[in-house]
Specification:
503 residues, Aldehyde Dehydrogenase, Chain A, domain 1, Aldehyde Dehydrogenase, Chain A, domain 2, 2 domains, seven-stranded mixed beta sheet, six-stranded mixed beta sheet, 15 helices, 24 strands, globular, binds nicotinamide-adenine-dinucleotide
Length: 503
């Protein structure tokens, strides 16, 4: 399939005149950030970073090698003891200073994120605000950790629980929310007293490198390091490295499996935030208009390139027709365009040509299997990797498009007749990251919250997150908690110290 194989009506808003989101001198250095400074790699190999809304190359960055990863691990090792000993108060002050520095540069960071991902400025601005709040939350949480009370649990022995950092944590991040997903890792990992080697997605390294540049004077050298390059090279090396104490990855299930396999050799801890396919169960008594309006955002935010996206609707057969009308009405008003085309743009392109073609392949197979596009259904014409906001109906039960993660602006609509059927079909996806149920009956809402197999369940809402609350998956969506005090736990270890106090 080529990028022109399927096009559909609808337009992509473009800037009236060629305009740029950022001057070129605002780009970060395209090098690794190791021991507090930018460095070229061990080879001169580079990779191009592309703007997916124009298909133009933005810049080139170093394509790292295992030796580059090793150099960064060494820097993180050298920094770990001193950083691990800093008092929570000191670490909190540094995290707050990082948050302030990000806030001072919020506009620049949002523009850089929009340039690298093609996402609308309103989405990029939301990402940066969430990143800043991650640092602020973890600054407070680091000073307010809780644990079992110290006390005598065996005769004449005083037990104390120490919470310790793990050491060096390897982090691998995806392209959909480049800085936000990095912040969800960096903030708790540093707050817990660990040092970091982070590998950003090869497609979207720019805001992570800018973060390193902006915070270089705030963190001791070696505490935070970035190595750019390919997953199977840099990510794999971090996962297998004997001096890396834990590996945390946000990405696809396949990358998660690869990392867990590589980590098994050294029995290091693994933290995985993987894919999703969130079911949205709509009962006959639900507020259908509210559900349709909520899905306009929850299904298409970030062009549906969102692991918690509400993308698989299961609606009671008695209200399916009315709900579908409302959904199509809502989704048809989405404004698609390049980030330079104005503040009202709500949806951008797919991240890359390869991903664009993958999404189109899903749409083609779904329609070949009998699904009908009530809206959209293919690519939008012109430059850039734009896919039309799509609603698929008449979807045969068990069709691949209802079970596999499409990671594009696509909602499938299926029907059910009983609560048990709704639950078993919602739970048949291999993923378990997020789900929602819509009903005005509170008992049914409670029942659905406990019956749906997902790390986050919304009742009468979808895709609302809070830094105080954990974000984590069940089943193939991985294990490990992002956000909240649970993330701090995941990046710490507890040690039981027992004093014999018999006299
Ligand atoms: P991806 O798995 O292709 O890449 C993620 C990262 O893993 C990249 O940095 C990549 O270079 C690296 N990687 C690839 N192969 C690797 C290997 N063998 N060893 C080590 N690292 C490797 O995912 P993506 O396409 O960048 O992101 C989309 C995926 O991420 C989707 O499945 C989405 O659901 C998931 N995601 C999950 C969450 C969550 O919180 N659960 C959040 C965002 C994205």
């Amino acid at each position: 399939m080529t990028s022109t194989a399927t096009t559909t009506s609808g337009t992509v808003r473009r800037a009236a005149e060629p305009s740029s989101l950022l001057p070129t001198d605002a780009l970060p250095p395209g090098q690794h950030f190791i021991a507090g400074e930018f460095r070229p790699g061990t080879t001169n190999e580079t990779q191009s970073v592309v703007d997916p809304s124009t298909e133009a190359t933005i810049c080139d960055v170093a394509q790292g090698t295992a030796a580059d990863a090793d150099a960064a691990v060494l820097a993180a090792l050298e920094a770990k003891e001193a950083w691990g000993r800093t008092l929570p108060k000191k670490r909190a002050e540094i995290l707050l200073a990082i948050a302030d520095r990000l806030a001072e540069n919020a506009d620049l960071l949002a523009r850089l994120e929009a340039l690298n991902t093609g996402k609308p400025l309103m989405v990029a601005e939301d990402d940066i605000a969430g990143s800043i709040d991650s640092f602020r939350f973890m600054a407070g949480a680091a000073r307010a950790t809780t644990s079992l009370a110290a006390g005598e649990y065996a005769e004449d022995h005083l037990s104390v629980i120490l919470r310790e950092p793990l050491g060096v944590v390897g982090v691998v991040t995806p392209w959909n929310y480049p800085l936000l997903m990095a912040a969800w890792k960096i903030a708790p990992i540093l707050a817990a007293g660990n040092t970091i080697v982070l590998k950003p997605s090869e497609q979207t390294p720019l805001t992570t490198l800018k973060f390193a540049e902006l915070t270089a004077d705030l963190l001791p050298p070696g505490v935070f390091n970035v190595v750019t390059g390919l997953g199977p090279v840099i990510g794999a090396r971090l996962a297998e490295h004997p001096k890396v104490d834990m590996i945390a990855l946000t990405g696809s299930v396949n990358s998660g499996r690869a990392v867990a396999r590589a980590a098994a050799e050294t029995v290091k801890r693994v933290h995985l935030e993987l894919g999703g396919k969130a079911p949205v169960v709509i009962f006959a008594d639900a507020d259908l208009a509210a559900a349709a309006e909520s899905l306009r955002a929850a299904g298409y935010w970030n062009s549906g390139q969102e692991c918690g996206a509400g993308c698989r609707v299961l609606v009671h057969e008695s209200v399916a027709e009315r709900f579908t009308e409302l959904l199509v009405e809502q989704v048809s008003t989405l404004i698609v365009g390049e980030p330079t085309a104005g503040a009202e743009i709500e949806m951008g392109p797919m991240i890359s040509k390869a991903h664009f073609e993958r999404v189109l392949g899903h749409l083609e197979r779904a329609q070949a299997a009998g699904a009908k596009a009530a809206l959209g259904g293919g690519a939008l014409e012109g430059t850039g990797y734009f896919v039309a906001p799509t609603v698929l109906v008449d979807v045969p039960e068990g069709a691949a498009c209802t079970l596999e993660e499409i990671f594009g602006p696509v909602i499938t609509v299926e029907t059910f007749s009983t609560e048990d059927e709704a639950v078993s079909r919602a739970n048949e996806v291999p993923y378990g990251l997020a789900a929602s149920a819509w009903t005005l009956n509170p008992q049914l809402g409670h029942a659905m919250a406990s019956r749906l197999e997902a790390g986050t369940v919304w009742i009468n809402s979808h895709l609302v997150l809070a830094n105080e609350m954990p974000w984590s998956g069940f089943k193939s969506s991985g294990y490990g908690r992002d956000l909240s005090a649970y993330a701090l736990d995941d990046y710490s270890r507890t040690k039981h110290v027992m004093h014999n106090k018999a006299r």
